[in-house]
Amino acid sequence: MSVYHTPPDDAAGLLQFGKSKDHRPDLRQYVQALGTLDPAGMPLVSETLDGNAGDPPMYRPVWRRMVKVIGHTDWLFVGDSKLHSAQNIAEIHRAAVMC
Known about the structure:
alpha+beta
């Protein structure tokens, strides 16, 4: 998500400039991940991440948090094409086998 925000000069902060998917490099960005329990749509995990990093690494910590909340690894994890990186799939598979 892109936002209009001007932080103090000395603040690194969560809102950073990054590659803008909406072609607005002048706006700061952040990423919001949400894990829900269907069919109710009840939120289980919400993660706010800075917007200047690539998407693939953000999936692994969210997956680990969902495993802790749910208590097992037998559930459907849905993401966009960036979820399907070799590193993400390998780590999720390794962690699921070890649980």
